[in-house]
Structures are given as C-alpha cells and as structure tokens.
Amino acid sequence: xxxxxxxxxxxxxxxxxxxxxxxxxxxxxxxxxxxxxxxxxxxxxxxxxxxxxxxxxxxxxxxxxxxxxxxxxxxxxxxxxxxxxxxxxxxxxxxxxxxxxxxxxxxxxxxxxxxxxxxxxxxxxxxxxxxxxxxx
Length: 136
Ligand SMILES: [Zn+2]
Ligand SMILES: [Zn+2]
Fold this sequence. Notes:
By secondary structure, the chain is mainly beta. It contains 1 helix and 11 strands; from the N terminus they run βββαββββββββ. The termini are far apart.
C-alpha cells in the first residue's frame, strides 16, 4: 500500500489527498511563485494528476499563458500549479501537507531568480530555469 499524503488550506475548506509519493520535489525561486505566495521561495511537490484527489473547490486562475494556479478563495492559501505543457502533472505546495516533513526537496529551479541573501548549501542540483522539459 502506498502511503498517502494529506493536505489542506489554512481554513480547511479545501483538502487534498495524494495517493502516491511525489515524483520530484523542487524548490522554485522564480519571481511568479515569489509574488503569488509572498514567500522568498517555494517548494513544489510534483504528482501524477491521477494520484491527486481534491475535496472542496479550489479557485483556478490562469496566471500566464498555459499556467493555472489554484488557491482557496476563502482563506487565500496558494495550492497548486499546472502547466499545459506538462500533461498529467500537478504541482502542490509542500507546505500544505500534514506530512510536509516527508516531502524532501531534491532540486532547485530558477536559481537565476533566487534572492541573493538566500544561500543554497544543501548540495542539491540547481537549474537555471525549469527542471522539467516542456512539450512544444
Ligand atoms: Zn481555505
Ligand atoms: Zn516558480
């Protein structure tokens, strides 16, 4: 039996269950993630969309062409990210999971946009921009 992961927004109107472990866990230092969350950097857990079940209705918004970000429209918690060029993949903020300690980052994305005062000394792979090849 794969171990499930359980997440929720700050007000609990939205809950999510992941039925499998993430296939990758990446820091993202890009300006869009920074602006959208207000955090200096974020950690995205990448899942097969088929392994994700939502309860409640996340508000979905296209933040740039092909990019959909979802959040709770009750409390504002940012929840997920989908790229139309990454078919079948859903990225969820690691921090919303009860088991966040189990979701350990394995790489850094967009280090070219990283805040200079954030020092990366964890030995993980660093990518200038995205960590995954996009279609088209
Ligand atoms: Zn909420
Ligand atoms: Zn980002």
